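Please predict the structure of the following assembly.
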Amino acid sequence: MSFWEKLSKIDRRFIYFTLFLAVTIPLIFPFNLRPKPMPPVQKLYNYIDTISQDKTLVVSVDYTPDTEPELHPMSIALLRHAFARHIKVGVLTLQLLGLGLAQDALATVTHEFNSRAQTNSDSIIYGRDYVFWGWQTPVLVPILGMGENIVGVFPVDYYGNRTDTLPIMKHLKNYNDVAILVSISGSAIPFYYITYAQTSFGLKIGAGSTAVQAADFYPYLNSGQVTGMMSGMKGGAEYEEMVASKLGVPGRRKATEAMSSQTVSHIWIMILIIFGNIGYFALRRRKK
Amino acid sequence: MKVRLPLFIVLITGILGAIPFLIPHNIVQNIDNEFRNSVLRIIVSFSLVLGVGSIIRHHVDKVTRKREHWEYSWILLITLLVTSIIGLFGGIEGNGRLPTHIGNFHFDIQTIYMYMAVPLMATMFSMLAFFMASAAYRAFRARNLEATLLLVSAFILMLGSVPLSNYILPKLPGFAEWILMVPNTAAKRGMGFGIALGTLATSLKIILGIERGWLGGTK
């Protein structure tokens, strides 16, 4: 086999092994790469930053563990932003497997804030500052039902408390009291929010999506039906960086940490594609 | 009757599902609320029973007949049983009636989920990166103009989605954003209109009983 043939037919095991190194080595020895926020992320951040005290941010944790590395940092960054700005938060999930992830994001961020709190007003208290409604299905029931009466859709929260007894719910009746709903998902759930909650109730929608799926949201971003979005791990890293640099909120930034790994692996895949094309053109010229 | 009854149910529920978006009258909205909040939820809860029932039946059958890889079915059945008991009686974070820790060793449902389900599912999904890298290397060849355009776009988007591009080519992320915002949006909108019209036509055919493939059978 000639050199050019070898270049165009690299063994897949070599590709797997080198990609494994390209992913893991930068994770162990990361280099400093600060992402610059792109307009969709900036728009989402700016909108959430201006939410008034009487309105609520709703975070819909609609992803499952398979996309956790890419999407979980988005939830954590959003919660950090909201709690740092004393914005009330409602959390729900439309994916059964998203329950544990939503619970983990809330536990992580509330622990961060409460460990630094000096007074009661600095603390993040369940029922006063945030509520976790839990899971509801099928998707159309909570999406349309919350536009009329949130307590009707979630009579009890994730922990079994009656939602109508929680102080936060006194001023949170339906979508009229929600400033924006951010659906973070690797599936089609944000589209349901756009189709039903945005179109029927005029609710502002934000999205967090995997990089693969991000292209699907641009028509809605372009039309204004989606207020802002975070796409892929880079979108999460951009939001994390803004929360850390503008609000000074400390805490581990997992998406930013993964940027080194993503950069090296993308460049390595591009090099492999270039090798493949060099080999392909050299062989084609020889055949002619 | 076996054909007419399902067709009649589909006709009624199809109409009831569509008209609340067109008629805002209280009677229509109340019927819609009732259907959505009660009937739909009851139907979905039946699907849970059906799903758990069928997975148990399938794997019990596999074990009893010793079909290929029947040993793994035991793992599934035992896992299903154990996690169900812990989830039902152990509470969310070990605060239920069933004790879910031995000393410092915790096995409540949230711990099982975070330290078993999450890594296992994330590992399965991360395998895609290796397959995609291998497939990209083999498939991305600039064979003609269309393939070259695809290749160039992919390169711009791949570079645009890493922060390094901000340092080496500061305008590249903006250009990647433009590709997504303009040519991508144009193509997606066109496809979206086509899909929406197709969905509408197919839905009407099903509601009116013209399309009957979903009934199964050949008659």
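The mean pLDDT of chain A is 94. Strands of chain A lie at 56-62, 88-93, 130-135, 178-185, 205-209, 228-231.
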